[in-house]
Amino acid sequence: MKKIIFVSAALAISLNAATNEEILGLYSGAPKDIKIEITDRKAVDGLDGFEAVVLKMSQGDMSQEDIAFTKDNLFIPDLVNVKTGMSYKDQIRQTRVYSLLADVYPKEEAKNIIKLGNDAKKPTLVVFTDAECPYCRKEMEKAEDRLKTHNLEIVMTSVHGESGNVKSALIYKETAKAKSDDEKLKVLHKYYNMTEKGDKSKVSDAEFKAAEDLAKKYQSNGINGVPFIVEKDKISK
């Protein structure tokens, strides 16, 4: 009897839920060169009748995900627990990003990871960052302090187009020659300085494309904002 009631309730929710077409219709005013599609829908744990809707927004070879919620004929940008302040969007997004990164990051080429610290007793933080980002700049100022308690693995993932990718390429080029963490940090602080302008003439087309492709790879796997910092254990299989 309980199984029948459960199935009937599930069918009622399904029949009353907004369709993909209805949801996508809400984005009809988006620019024509932006493609929007629904890639997943899942029930939200602990919230009867609510579904999380995963939307993929693409423009050329760039894409990013957004998450919204629906119940019956309602479409809601986020659900927030007012007692705890927890955002269901942030929670689901984090889980999805960790899962995506766990498929990609363990396979990353060593040349694309700037390693600082090598203490087996310390946990490791993976930092996705951009030398042109003011928030990343503030985070980079804390690098020496973070190294007191953690090892760091830095991946340059610019969200600032050409200027950011030029700096990323220069950082990889110069840190590859560094013989110590102090020398690597000196390079990083140099290019994270807001007055430093990356010299594109010192970057080959191949080096620029490698930096650009690296950023796009991680953006397509959930890194839509930087700095993005995660414990390495959480994205290691």
Question: What is the CATH topology descriptor of the largest domain?
Answer: Glutaredoxin
Spans of 5+ residues with little confidence (pLDDT < 50)? 1-15
Proportion of β residues?
15-25%
SSE ordering: HHEEEEHEEHHEHHHE
The CATH class of the largest domain: Alpha Beta
Q: What is the topology?
A:
Blueprint: H1 2-16, H2 20-25, E1 35-43, E2 51-59, E3 62-71, E4 74-76, H3 88-104, E5 114-116, E6 124-129, H4 134-140, H5 143-146, E7 151-156, H6 161-175, H7 181-192, H8 205-219, E8 228-231
Parallel strand pairs: 6-7
Antiparallel strand pairs: 1-2, 2-3, 3-4, 5-7, 6-8
Helix pairs in contact: 6-7, 6-8
Domain Thioredoxin-like fold: 114-216
Pfam family, one: Thioredoxin_4
Protein name: Thioredoxin-like fold domain-containing protein
